[in-house]
Amino acid sequence: MSRQRRQGPRRQEQRHQGPERQGPERQGPERRAGAAGGNSGEGVRHVSVLAAAVVATLAPQQGALYVDGTFGGGGYSQALLAAADCRVVAIDRDPEAVRCGNDLALAHGGRLRVIEGNFGDMERLLGPVAIGAVGGIALDLGVSSMQLDSAERGFSFRLDGPLDMRMSGVGRSAADLVATLSEDELARLIGDLGEERFARRVARAIVAERQCGPIGRTLDLARVVRSAIPRTEPGLDAATRTFQALRIAVNDELDELDRGLDAAERLLKPGGRLAVVSFHSLEDRRVKDFLRQRSGAAARASRHEPAQPPAAPPSFRLLHRRPVRPAAEETAHNPRARSARLRAAERTAAPPWPPRRGRQLGQAS
Which residue among 28, 113, 241, 359 has its CA within the 20 to 30 Å range from the CA of 311? Predict the structure, then answer.
């Protein structure tokens, strides 16, 4: 039986493909926003979200070392290098981003070094000499605009391309998960990582559709998901949360974030600062809980219970009581920035806490 290729409406797609509604260009997914260009990704222009706030938070100093853990188009790295005569080590798992970054590094006289790898491995990538010696770390989470705007990367539900979603180009793709996970596994993945209330309907529709043939294209999956969801929020494409869930699982994003936060705690010197920009609640909740716990400000189970002393001396001091959000001027210029939240903290002289461990749902063992 052949599959009927009926494409759903090209609705808006979220900047970071989180549940929040986004701006008029699209709603959908790491970090950087503000791209323009065709399906191939050529001519993409990138504008880093909250770049001024991130640089102001890190307050770069002459001669200090900074880490841009999610290089992408290099917006944060360039802003840090322009703010002070400092050094920046940038990390990205995307080989194309690293290639472009190496070209950019040539223009900075040895002050910028770009490494291919995951920011969760930054301690290993930088080496023992960097432990306790880094002045600031910036993390901008999710998938980049350049990846999202390249149809062949398979992140977008509004562009037709292979159902891939691998940031590094290796490992299991989204098509592999869609083809091999059971209905129960798909429902749990989409519900937990996509926060999709109709996850069971979506999983059932995917399993039924794949009986007719492989679901190997982004628009085919988007059509199946839209057909399974009876209603959605105004301005939110029905495929948003399912695509988010698959992307997070394919790239192990939440476990990567946990490892990156632990590594940042060990790498930062006393007075060094951590700035993390997130775009959906799963990421932001993890960052918030980590920083509150490490700063001794973790929420109590009940406000009537006495405050308990932290498990160890606080290793961070919160810099903002609430997350920093983009100003109206930035969101008007860059609609994808609307759901961005910046959380930041300063490293104390206390020793790092024991690292946390655990794998997220849907990831291959």
Answer: 359
